[in-house]
Amino acid sequence: MSELQDLYQEVILDHYRRPRNSGTLDHANRHAEGQNPLCGDEVKLWLDVEDGVVKDVSFTGVGCAISTASASMMSEAVKGKRIEEVEALFEKFHKMVAGRDVVDSEELGKLQALSGVREFPLRVKCATLAWHTMKAALAGADEVVTTETGDE
Ligand code: ZN
């Protein structure tokens, strides 16, 4: 493994062991749940959205290291961002993990630690679960999203 991969591994394990923004959110005005039946990952997400800005975010989840770390990293990445910015970031993140595009690395920041999942198609769903759930929450879709029906 290269030094960079070692570093990425460390970032993922750190977020898996000590998830940021974990728990429920009392003042949430958006909520969605996501499931990835292929791996058994589940994510519940709470958002406090005001004036088009994600003011606060929290999540609970059970699942593999990738899904938990991804949810934790996402929560850090989207806090304080406008909804359009969150959606643009998801686009970039999705392209990165699906290996479809070379993306601006600076903008993705720490999220790049998950770029390795492109080598493992099943893991892509683990990495995108929290993001799909985020999208559902922002859309106000009060339903359980599942990666089974989506493309990734
Ligand atoms: Zn998983």
Overview of the structural elements:
By secondary structure, the chain is α+β, with helices and mostly antiparallel strands. The chain has a single domain, classed as Sufe protein. Chain: A (Alpha-Beta Complex), CATH 3.90.1010. The chain is built from 5 helices and 4 strands, in the order αβββααααβ. It has helices at residues 3-17, 65-78, 83-98, 105-108, 121-139, and strands spanning 30-36, 41-50, 53-62, 144-146. The model has no long low-confidence stretch (mean pLDDT 91). Zinc ion is lined by residues 36, 39, 41, 63-64, 66-67, 126.
Layout of SSEs?
Layout (H helix, E strand, L loop, with lengths): L2 H15 L12 E7 L4 E10 L2 E10 L2 H14 L4 H16 L6 H4 L12 H19 L4 E3 L6
Parallel strand pairs: 1-4
Antiparallel strand pairs: 1-2, 2-3
Helix pairs in contact: 1-2, 2-5, 3-5
Bound molecules: zinc ion.
Zinc ion binds next to helix 2.
Using only C-alpha atoms, the radius of gyration works out to 14 Å
**Average pLDDT level:** 91
What are the segments in which pLDDT stays under 50 over at least 5 consecutive residues? none
Structural class: alpha+beta
Q: Could you give the order of the helices and strands?
A: HEEEHHHHE
| Portion of residues within helices | 40-55%
Strand order across the biggest sheet?
A: 3-2-1-4
Query: How would the global form be characterised?
Result: globular
- Biggest beta-sheet profile: 4 strands, mixed
| Highest CATH level, the class | Alpha Beta
